[in-house]
Structure formats: structure tokens, C-alpha cells
Amino acid sequence: MTTELRPGEVIAGYVIARRIGAGGSGVVYAARHPRLPRLTALKILKRDDVAEDADVWRRFEREADIAAHFDHPNIVQVYDRGVADDIFWISMQFIDGVDAAELHHVSAERGLRIATEIGAALDYAHGKGVLHRDVKPSNILIADPDNGRPERALLTDFGIARLRDETTKLTHTGNISATFAFASPEQVSGKPVGPRSDQYSLACTLFVLLTDHRPFRADNPLGWVHAHTQERPLPISEVNPELPPALDAVFEQAMAKDPEDRFESCADFAYAATQAYYSDPALARTAPARLLPHPPPRRPRGRKPLWRSVLHRRTLIPVAVAAVTAAVVGFAFHHGTPAPAPADVGLVPARFVGTWLATEGQTNYRLTVQQAKTGDPVLSNRVDGVLPNGFPFHCEFSAPLDAVPKEGDRLIVGTSEIVVREPANACKANGPTTLTLLPDGRVSRKTDVSGLITYTSADAVVSSWGRDDTAIARAFPSLIGQLASTGTAVGWQGGSCQPRDPGPGEAAQGAHRVRCNADDATGQVHFDVIDFDTRPGQSVAQLFFDNNAIKVTGVDHDDVAGQLIITTAAAVDSSATQDTDAHRALAAVTFPDGDPRSRFVMVVRWPGHTVNSLLTDWLERAPLK
User: Fold this and answer.
1) Where is 357: in which H helix or E strand?
2) Is the dihedral of CA 333, 336, 340, 342 positive or negative?
3) What is the pLDDT of residues 98-130, one digit of tens each?
4) What whole-number distance in Å separates Cα of residue 88 and Cα of residue 500?
């Protein structure tokens, strides 16, 4: 029996307003939040599913837990989950709008923009170690334009998403868990899936948006299996003659049978499709400025081209915009053509939007530029370093957008406001400053306090590391820094970091590792980040403490949902034993179950300091994102 609720009923404090729709895993209602003046999308699990399958609630919980780790403007945010009166529920963002399955005769410009936004969302999820596995139009929600803000596409329903380090099969009780028309060859044939499987599904989705037809002809499960594994997709320019033939090759590559033959990322596919569309001379005059006049140069495989930082960065959607419900829901609202934004919006050029990193001596800067209009917050800056007396400091600032010069390579930013300061005398706000985009893709900012600072995009930091260490760099870009041609990087608090995999006889042999300050004798913190690809098969005690007695402690960290697990030798007094070469007082740091970073272990020691000092004075402030 499907759970059905009536308007006015109360579940976990949420007051049901109306039924929105139903999908394979439950019913979704618009509900009034118990404490805040806003609507929430409340997803209720079908009771029959819980009664018939004990794993259903675990999968339901996983949907909430996975999505709760995400913070991206094109992914539906999950707020909470629980059980009330034997009813299983998840509360999520709510937005008035439709899902993409209800769109027809979509213009190429609109379809490509939707694909670009969803591609960025997928790449973000992949960077967190999560595959979506069910990308299709009904799992893409379109938020209506609101008060001059453009519409946006959001990805939802991570109900069958799996962490990439889990071993899993696609089938469950004999049924394939993704819609056949949008499933990749590896999904329908039971082979291992990866990020490029989601890219294949995104390409099928965009094909449907641009043509109102599917890329293959089939009408039953066996037909779809044959089509996805054996047939070439229909040429999109033949299905929709209004599209340029240049798009045919793009879709054929994105839907290649072998994942290795597809684009390196979803953003790469979306960019290539956009560029191919505007390669038609008749359309070139309407192309986004970043695509003209020439395509970007080809880069070596494994290195992200500069334009990736354009398409992969976040676009700010203010919190006042209502959010979207779960994917498999049909909306009853009519969606019209987006209204043009007012002329005075003054949007920030996309090349500036994103996260930028810099290190000067022992001071680290993390600058985030978001989309904004004049007068709104555009810049947030986090500064961490070491004072002359050896004590650490932490400052956070916010600054508004003053102006965007016509040249498009500068932003005029207003006076900073101090948000956080520890200690108070270490932080001083800047007056108006200018951000300048440099020819090499970096950004410079001249400040009153620190002088000229040159930032590198977080994407460029990640791409500087080789394929073996990309996952470490993506998870901890601020911690290990950008790898230079010399083979070393300047990491957190000026540390010297380099790739150095464990050798024969070392703990964690076979894993990938980045070592920082390993050869430093000046008293800096020594830390290793080790990537096991999956959660380690051996315990931390076996790997790093020779299976001797250990102590385990949980600690909070601003960058972690849940607690970090700190493992030390039982013989080490965390408050008194100082680390020396003769008596190592090291700590192994692991992430909680469910966190995509559970595949990593950090091994940390601080010569001359205790473990407690290491935790409070270093780890607590270290950026773990």
C-alpha cells in the first residue's frame, strides 16, 4: 500500500500542503517547515517497499546521506531524514518548476545550458566519489526564473547512486536499476561503471531534449541492450535538421561503447557540444563570448584545459530561490520561456567564478568568487597562517561587488568585512581592491594588508598532479597545493609536498601517497595523505601500529559531516608525550563511514609537540576540502 497523506496532516513536524507527485521510490509532498517560513519537499517512502525488502530503508537512508554531503547549486539539497509513525521521510529543497521530461521543443541554447549545468553537477559528484547511475530527463528539475534570476537545472534522486569505491551490480531482483533508454552499455551488460557512464546518460538526455526523440530505436529491454551495446546512435542532425552536422561527432564520442573513448568529463562533453553548435557560421554571432573566436588548444590527456575552470565553477543562486523536489516526480506547473534578466544585473564573468588558492610563505589564501550583482557579496576569503610568535591565525572576510569593467578581465571589489578572526588582532579588513584575470588563467589581487597575491584556480591545482594522485589533489587541494615542474608543491602553511608512493616494506604498500615535509627538520608538521582507492581492507592498527594496542578518539572538524577518527598508540599520552625521532607520537586520521573521503588515511606527526597540540593547533584548522 502506498502511503498517502492529506493536506493538513503533520509528519515529523512538517505540515503537508499538497501532493506533488510520485515516483518509483515514494511520494513527494510540498510541506511547510516546522520552524522556518518556507516550503519543503517531503519524500515519503512507499510502505510496501519497506515491508517487502529490508534493504529499502538502507537505500533510502543512503540517498539522504549521499546527497547531504553535496553543496552545489545544480544539485537538489537534502535537509534531513527520519522515521515518524512508521513513515520513512526525507526533507529536501523545494522549487516551483518542472522536470525536464516535461519539456518539449527545447531550443538548442536552452538544452545546451541545461546540459552544461548538469554536467558541472555530475563532475562535482564524481569528485566526491559518487556516481549518479540514473541520469535522465525526469531526474533533472528546472527551477523557474525568479525576480530576474535565470532558470537553472538541478540534478536530483541519488536513490540508486553508489559510492564509487563500493562493489555493486546494476541488477536488483532481476530488474535493471536505470531507465533502459538512458543506460550506458556497461550498465545494461553488468560491467563496472564509472563517471563516464553518467556522461553517456547525460548525452542520451541532451539528445532527447534537442530532438524529442531517443538516440536509438528500441521498444523493449532486449532491444535496448542490443542498441546500447551494438548500434551507433542516430545522427542528431538528421533527427533534427535545425542542428549543425558538427554535433553528430560529439554525441557519437559521448555515447561511445568503450568508456575510455568518451570525453574525460561531463563538462568536457557539454563544452564540446556547445562549441560544435556555435561552429555553424549562422549561429556564431549568438555564441557565448567564452567560445569565440577559436577553440582552446588541445592539452595532454589527464590535464584539465583552462576552459574547464569556466564550465566547472559554481554559479551562485541566492538562498532565497526556492528549491526543487525529488526527481521522479511530475510537476503540474506550466513552464514558460525564461524572462530576460534586467539590464542592471551586472553578472560576474564566468571566468572569475570558482575557488582560487594561493600560498605565500606559511600563509594560505582560499578565495571564492561567486556570481553576484552590484552591491551583493561576490567574494569570500579565508586566510590561515602562522604568526611571528609561532601561534596560528585564522581570518575570514566577505566583500561586495562594486563594478565589472567592460573589458571583462577585471572585477572591482568593495571594502572587506571581517566574518571570523582568531585572534582578533591578526585580521585586518581590506579597502576596495581589483581582481585581474591574467593571461595564464590565474587571478591577481592587490591588497592593503598582504600586497599583491596571485591565485591559481582549484581546478588547475588538481590537474597539476598526475593521474595516480588526482583523487588526493581533488579531495585536498588546499592541503597539498599545486605540483610544480620540479616535482614538489607548496602545501598547507608552506609545507613541501611531493608524490611518493609507499615502497617495499612500508605500510600501505600498493596505495598512492602524497608526502608533505617528510624531509623537513625545522619542526613543521609532517603529514602523509594515502589513497587506498577504496576504504582500506586492513585496519589502521594493522597498517600503522603493527597491530599493537591503540586508542581511538572522535573529533569534530568544520569540513567534515560527522567526526574524524583519530587513532594513536595506546602507549602515547596525548596530552604529555612529545613527538621525537626516538618516540614517534603519530596520529592516523580517518573519515567517517559514508564520507567519500573514507578511502583516504592521513598520517600526521609534529616534532616536539603532543598529539593534543597537533589536533587543536594544526588539524582543527587544516582545510580538508
Assistant:
1) strand 354-360
2) negative
3) 889 999 989 999 999 999 999 999 998 888 888
4) 47
Whether 457 and 355 have beta carbons less than 8 Å apart is answered as: yes
Task: Give the helix ranges, DSSP H, for 240-303.
Answer: 246-254, 266-278, 281-284
User: What is the set of active-site residues?
Assistant: 134
Name every residue whose Cβ is closer than 8 Å to that of residue 162 and which is 6 or more positions away in sequence: 130, 131, 133, 168
CB 59 within 8 A of CB 159: yes
Long-range contact pairs involving 581-590 (C-beta distance under 8 Å, separation at least 24)? 581/607, 585/610, 585/611, 586/544, 587/611, 587/614, 587/615, 587/619, 588/540, 588/543, 588/544, 588/545, 589/564, 589/565, 589/619, 590/540, 590/564, 590/565
Is-contact 103 137, C-beta < 8 A? yes
Where would I find the H helices in 216-264?
221-230, 236-239, 246-254
Residue at grid coordinates 585586518: 428
Q: Fill in the DSSP letter of residue 263.
A: -
Alpha-helical regions (H) of 364-518: 458-463, 470-475, 477-480
Cβ 265 vs Cβ 123: under 8 Å: yes
Q: Name the one residue in this structure whose C-alpha cell is 551586472.
A: 346
Q: What whole-number distance in Å separates Cα of residue 19 and Cα of residue 394?
A: 47
pTM for the whole structure: 0.48
pLDDT band at 56 (very low <50, low <70, confident <90, very high): low
SS3 of 422, please? strand
Whole-angstrom distance, CA of residue 116 vs CA of residue 73: 13
Task: Check: CB of residue 382 under 8 Å from CB of residue 366.
Answer: yes
Query: For 164-181, what is each residue's pLDDT tens digit?
Result: 443 333 333 333 434 788
Q: C-alpha distances in angstroms, 102 versus 212, 330, 335?
A: 11, 8, 9
What does the alpha-carbon distance between residue 266 and residue 199 come to, in Å, rounded to a whole number? 5
Using alpha carbons only, give the angle 460, 465, 468 rounded to the nearest 5 degrees: 140
- Asked if residues 600 and 589 have their Cβ atoms less than 8 Å apart, the reply is no
Q: Assign 3-class secondary structure to 324-351.
A: CCCCCCCCCCCCCCCCCCCCCCCCCCHH
448 grid coordinates:
592593503
Place 307 in a pLDDT band, splitting at 50, 70 and 90.
very low
N residues, the chain: 625
Task: For residue range 558-617, list pLDDT tens digits in order.
Answer: 888 889 999 999 999 999 999 988 888 999 999 987 788 888 999 999 999 999 999 988
**CA 576, CA 613: separation in Å to the nearest integer?**
10
Note whether 430 and 379 are within 8 A (CB): no
